[in-house]
Protein 1
Amino acid sequence: GGGQSLQFRPGEVQLWSLENGGQIRTFAGHTANVWSVAVSPNAKWVASGAYNGRVLVHDLETGNQIAAIEK
Protein backbone atom coordinates (compact mmCIF):
# COMPACT_ATOMS: atom_id res chain seq x y z
CA GLY A 1 0.00 0.00 0.00
CA GLY A 2 0.84 3.64 -0.21
CA GLY A 3 3.14 5.33 -2.63
CA GLN A 4 5.99 7.76 -2.66
CA SER A 5 6.51 11.28 -3.96
CA LEU A 6 9.59 13.35 -4.76
CA GLN A 7 9.72 17.02 -3.79
CA PHE A 8 12.23 19.62 -5.01
CA ARG A 9 13.81 21.78 -2.32
CA PRO A 10 16.62 24.36 -2.58
CA GLY A 11 19.73 22.26 -3.22
CA GLU A 12 18.07 18.88 -2.58
CA VAL A 13 15.33 16.42 -3.40
CA GLN A 14 13.17 14.80 -0.73
CA LEU A 15 11.34 11.47 -0.86
CA TRP A 16 8.00 11.40 0.99
CA SER A 17 5.54 8.67 1.89
CA LEU A 18 2.04 9.23 0.49
CA GLU A 19 0.69 6.72 3.00
CA ASN A 20 1.65 8.55 6.21
CA GLY A 21 2.96 11.90 4.93
CA GLY A 22 6.40 11.34 6.48
CA GLN A 23 9.73 12.14 4.90
CA ILE A 24 11.62 8.98 3.96
CA ARG A 25 14.99 10.45 2.94
CA THR A 26 16.81 13.41 1.44
CA PHE A 27 19.03 13.38 -1.63
CA ALA A 28 21.50 16.23 -1.08
CA GLY A 29 24.57 17.55 -2.83
CA HIS A 30 23.33 20.27 -5.16
CA THR A 31 24.68 23.80 -4.79
CA ALA A 32 21.95 25.32 -6.99
CA ASN A 33 18.18 24.94 -7.18
CA VAL A 34 16.98 21.60 -8.54
CA TRP A 35 14.92 21.95 -11.71
CA SER A 36 14.26 18.36 -12.76
CA VAL A 37 14.07 14.85 -11.33
CA ALA A 38 13.71 11.44 -12.96
CA VAL A 39 13.46 7.95 -11.51
CA SER A 40 15.02 5.03 -13.39
CA PRO A 41 12.59 2.52 -14.94
CA ASN A 42 13.68 -0.12 -12.42
CA ALA A 43 13.09 2.34 -9.53
CA LYS A 44 16.65 1.92 -8.23
CA TRP A 45 18.04 5.39 -8.94
CA VAL A 46 16.91 9.00 -8.92
CA ALA A 47 18.63 11.57 -11.13
CA SER A 48 18.29 15.26 -10.32
CA GLY A 49 19.37 18.20 -12.44
CA ALA A 50 20.11 21.65 -11.08
CA TYR A 51 20.08 25.13 -12.60
CA ASN A 52 23.91 25.15 -12.79
CA GLY A 53 23.92 22.10 -15.09
CA ARG A 54 25.02 19.57 -12.47
CA VAL A 55 23.27 16.20 -12.48
CA LEU A 56 23.40 13.90 -9.46
CA VAL A 57 22.37 10.26 -9.35
CA HIS A 58 21.40 8.72 -6.01
CA ASP A 59 20.47 5.22 -4.93
CA LEU A 60 16.75 5.47 -4.19
CA GLU A 61 16.86 2.89 -1.39
CA THR A 62 19.94 4.11 0.54
CA GLY A 63 20.14 7.76 -0.50
CA ASN A 64 23.83 7.38 -1.36
CA GLN A 65 25.12 9.49 -4.25
CA ILE A 66 26.46 7.19 -6.93
CA ALA A 67 27.33 9.63 -9.73
CA ALA A 68 27.83 13.31 -10.48
CA ILE A 69 27.89 14.83 -13.95
CA GLU A 70 29.21 18.36 -14.31
CA LYS A 71 28.27 20.71 -17.13
Note: The chain has a mean pLDDT of 92.
Protein 2
Amino acid sequence: IPDADLRALTCPTLCVYGEQSGCLPVGRRLVAQLPNAHLTVLPAGHYLTVETPERLTKVVVDFLAGARDG
Protein backbone atom coordinates (compact mmCIF):
# COMPACT_ATOMS: atom_id res chain seq x y z
CA ILE A 1 0.00 0.00 0.00
CA PRO A 2 1.49 3.36 -0.92
CA ASP A 3 2.35 5.67 1.97
CA ALA A 4 -0.01 8.36 0.67
CA ASP A 5 -2.92 5.91 0.85
CA LEU A 6 -2.00 4.95 4.41
CA ARG A 7 -1.84 8.60 5.44
CA ALA A 8 -5.41 9.03 4.16
CA LEU A 9 -6.74 6.46 6.65
CA THR A 10 -7.73 8.39 9.74
CA CYS A 11 -9.56 5.82 11.86
CA PRO A 12 -7.92 4.72 15.13
CA THR A 13 -5.68 1.77 14.38
CA LEU A 14 -3.96 -0.63 16.76
CA CYS A 15 -0.87 -2.44 15.51
CA VAL A 16 0.35 -5.23 17.81
CA TYR A 17 3.54 -7.13 17.12
CA GLY A 18 5.89 -9.42 18.97
CA GLU A 19 9.34 -8.00 19.61
CA GLN A 20 10.92 -11.00 17.89
CA SER A 21 8.50 -11.09 14.96
CA GLY A 22 9.99 -10.63 11.53
CA CYS A 23 6.91 -8.53 10.73
CA LEU A 24 7.73 -5.82 13.29
CA PRO A 25 9.34 -3.54 10.67
CA VAL A 26 6.02 -3.55 8.81
CA GLY A 27 4.26 -2.45 11.99
CA ARG A 28 6.73 0.36 12.48
CA ARG A 29 6.13 1.52 8.90
CA LEU A 30 2.36 1.41 9.36
CA VAL A 31 2.50 3.46 12.54
CA ALA A 32 4.78 5.99 10.88
CA GLN A 33 2.25 6.52 8.08
CA LEU A 34 -1.18 6.03 9.69
CA PRO A 35 -2.11 9.29 11.43
CA ASN A 36 -4.08 7.67 14.28
CA ALA A 37 -2.11 4.48 14.76
CA HIS A 38 -0.67 3.10 17.97
CA LEU A 39 2.04 0.44 18.08
CA THR A 40 2.25 -2.02 20.94
CA VAL A 41 5.20 -4.41 21.00
CA LEU A 42 4.79 -7.44 23.23
CA PRO A 43 7.53 -9.73 24.55
CA ALA A 44 6.84 -12.53 22.09
CA GLY A 45 7.48 -13.74 18.60
CA HIS A 46 4.97 -13.90 15.76
CA TYR A 47 2.13 -15.93 17.31
CA LEU A 48 0.78 -13.51 19.92
CA THR A 49 -2.49 -15.39 20.41
CA VAL A 50 -0.51 -18.46 21.46
CA GLU A 51 2.55 -16.92 23.11
CA THR A 52 0.94 -14.15 25.15
CA PRO A 53 -2.85 -14.35 24.92
CA GLU A 54 -3.57 -12.55 28.20
CA ARG A 55 -1.39 -9.56 27.36
CA LEU A 56 -2.75 -9.39 23.83
CA THR A 57 -6.32 -9.46 25.13
CA LYS A 58 -5.60 -6.64 27.57
CA VAL A 59 -4.02 -4.49 24.84
CA VAL A 60 -7.00 -4.99 22.53
CA VAL A 61 -9.63 -4.43 25.25
CA ASP A 62 -7.88 -1.28 26.46
CA PHE A 63 -7.62 0.05 22.91
CA LEU A 64 -11.29 -0.63 22.20
CA ALA A 65 -12.33 0.96 25.50
CA GLY A 66 -10.36 4.07 24.60
CA ALA A 67 -11.88 4.19 21.12
CA ARG A 68 -15.34 3.92 22.62
CA ASP A 69 -14.67 6.58 25.27
CA GLY A 70 -12.79 8.95 22.98
Note: The longest strand covers residues 13-18.
